[in-house]
Amino acid sequence: xxxxxxxxxxxxxxxxxxxxxxxxxNIFLILxxxxxxxxxxxxxxxxxxSLPNLERQGAVAQQQERKTVVLNFLFIKETGxxxxxxxxxLPAIPKTAEGYDWSTLSDQLKAAKSKYPDSEDIxxxxxxxxxxxxxxxxxxxxxxSGFTNISISG
Amino acid sequence: xxxxxxxxxxxxxxxxxxxxxxxxxxxxxxxMIDMFTILLVFxxxxxxxxxxxxxxxxxxxxxxxxxxxxxxxxxxVAVTQAWILLDGRPLIGVDQVMQQSGFLIQxxxxxxxxxxxxSEGIGEMSAQxxxxxxxxxxxxxxxxxxxxxxxxxxxxxxxGYNNMMLTxxxxx
Lengths: 154, 172
Known about the structure:
heterodimer, A: alpha/beta, Nucleotidyltransferase, domain 5, five-stranded mixed beta sheet, 6 strands, 45% helix, 18% strand, B: alpha/beta, 2 domains, six-stranded mixed beta sheet, 46% helix, elongated
């Protein structure tokens, strides 16, 4: 009697533990191709850059009269960076062994920003051989330091 | 009578063989479900309902940036290592541009002027349609030199495309 009971319960246990996973597999098989199609692996963004508009030069001139312009320059050379801000003596930033010295550039830009908190304009002047990637990185550092209005000068 | 006898004798044999076969063909789906669950979570994370507005030109490695600005639909000037393309059509080779003495890229200027005339024409036809916006996307290879960028920007600015959107790969 005991033995029969034991066999009964064991059989019932086994029946309960056996899950039917086929519907789950069906859902997965439909969901995965759908999500694969809509997945975005490379996110694309843009950096906006405006040239001075030649057709609306009058309007620009009027704007410039209203606020005092602080011209911040950032030179990118083969040997390193150079930040020039009026009345602010900043040493040139030479390249280190790993390449450009990004942290010092950020520090100098922040120093320039704290001296003129209202100023949002910076002019980036790279030499001809600088790569596009470097220019984009410099633009990123400028934006992070608070210079949102970036111009490029050749 | 013989029929029932046959069935009685046949039934246990069939069920025994079926039990044997079902024992050998039992699939173990647990590990597969594990895998699918991980895949599902990953794909849900990278899910985007917006879709992609920008198509990236082949043979091009975009630079990386922390910019969060979303791209808009405009004409695209793509600069690969060999060619300058406008909306997918090759205009002039990069070597040719670098060899010329002036800064203006004449084929690009011509094509952009044509585009500008078309979009201005559309703008005049109806006030609801957006006319000439003056914005253009630039997709350029990360290894490109500033000398070439300068020439392209000058050519775009000359025609009146002053709002340039530099297409970059977004990094978090």
